[in-house]
Write a structure and sequence with these properties.
Elements: H1 3-23, H2 27-31, H3 40-60, H4 68-90, H5 99-105, H6 110-125
Helix pairs in contact: 1-3, 3-4, 4-5, 4-6
């Protein structure tokens, strides 16, 4: 898959997910049959952060090799998110069903983002 298309897809997905979380913060908890948060505004902040990442990915799509730091920061989040999920799964804070969220927000992007970062590294090395 072309790198700029990958980043545009990631950008669009993140922006859409962020908007949904901001507008309907309790829907994810209802869907996964979780206790509703006491402060849904914190979850809305997560949506805002994810949406902002999406804007960054969209910008990076114009020149992925030049904007590799945006991809790298996103990649770190996509690695750390599942680690946090696993910790909360083990502690009984999150149900296993919430892992669907982790699959689509994080895990499916590991390979495409890894490829993008490798391409940027190779391009830098060959200059």
């Amino acid at each position: 898959m072309k790198t700029s298309l990958t980043l545009k897809l990631a950008g669009a997905y993140n922006i859409l997910w962020g908007i949904l979380v901001i507008l309907f913060p309790l829907s994810f908890f209802d869907f996964f049959e979780m206790d509703l948060p006491r402060y849904p505004q914190i979850w809305q902040c997560v949506g805002m952060i994810v949406g902002v990442y999406g804007i960054g990915y969209w910008i990076a799509a114009k020149d992925p090799n030049r904007h590799w730091p945006i991809v790298f920061v996103g990649f770190l989040g996509k690695i750390l998110g599942p680690i946090g999920f696993l910790e909360n799964l083990i502690n009984g804070t999150f149900p296993l069903s919430f892992g669907v969220n982790i699959i689509f927000n994080d895990i499916i992007w590991w390979i495409p983002f890894g490829v993008l970062l490798k391409q940027a590294y190779d391009a830098e090395k060959n200059q």
